[in-house]
Amino acid sequence: MNPRQACLACLAREPSATFEAALWIAAEHEPAAAPAQLLEQMRDLHMSVSVGLPMLPARELAQPLLRRLNELGYQQDDFHPLRPQAALMNQVLARKRGQPLALGLLALELARRLNIPLMGVNFPGHFLLQVPGADHLLDPCGGRRLYPADCRELLNRLFGSQVPLRAEHMALATPLQMLQRLSRNLRQLHTQHDQLIAALKDAERVVELGAGNASDYMARASLYQRLGCPQAERFDIERALLLSDDAIQRLRLTDRLQQLPHPGGSVH
User: Fold this and answer.
1) Which residues pair with 98 in a beta bridge?
2) Cys staple from 98: which of 102, 119, 152, 245, with CB 3.0 to 4.6 Å?
């Protein structure tokens, strides 16, 4: 079983082994990353976190868990430009630095082991966490509480005041959605660092994990364009055209299709 297959097998379990699946994503890029060994190392982190938690009911331990991780050195990676290491879970464990989603996945795994109720929230631009039934969200990077006004401020800081806070921004994230988001993050980071083959692996994983959107197929088409694969590029542009509801985007995609060589050739 190769890393991609192992990742998908983790998702197919009941319940899904989301953290282990994220480790297999890292192993797809870095063969030296051994998920079985990394899971063994998690036992030590589990113990280090556990001994530092206060004696409180389990549903009150999510924020102390995040603060404890911060005390142990796990923080948001602020290196600029951000590198793929910030989203590869083996590197996050080794460096104690990561994107909010990577730190969130780590916190969710520890919460699972400690029987602390905690769930992921697909907030745009900055993955968040929530205790079921709580009136606030939690930042995986340190454990700060975010109430609706704080979420609105965070959204404005990330995307500008023209983007209103909507209920869908606070939606809980399924294991599949978290791994798709992780794959999109890696696709972007590998592309930014001109690691095109690695980015293509991530782009393929995005659409293999679940239904990709128009942007996913456009991103993969751009990678195929840079790699000189016009027929694969054509397939993804055609797929994006079918999925897009934006009239201007559809015009641009149609124009781009017309500039590509047609598949096959003339019969003489």
Assistant:
1) 76
2) 102
- Of 158, 184, 168, 169, the C-alpha closest to 123 is 169
Nearest to residue 230, comparing CAs of 239, 238, 221?
221
Angle at 186 between CA 182 and CA 192, to 5 degrees: 150
The domains of the chain, with CATH numbers, are: 3-170 (no CATH), 175-258 (1.25.40.10)
Cβ-count burial of 167 within 10 angstroms (0-12 exposed, 13-18 middle, 19+ buried)?
exposed
As a 3-state breakdown, the chain gives helix, strand, coil percent values, each rounded to 5, of 60, 5, 35
The answer to whether residue 267 scores a pLDDT higher than 50 is no
Residue 262: the pLDDT is 77
Q: By three-state DSSP, how is residue 172 classified?
A: strand
Give per-residue pLDDT as tens, 43-81: 999 999 999 999 999 999 999 999 999 999 999 999 999
Q: What is the DSSP letter of 261?
A: P
Measure the CA–CA gap between 148 and 136, rounded to whole angstroms. Answer: 7
Taking CA atoms, 9 is separated from 14, 20, 204, 224, in Å, by: 10, 10, 17, 28
pLDDT number for residue 268: 41
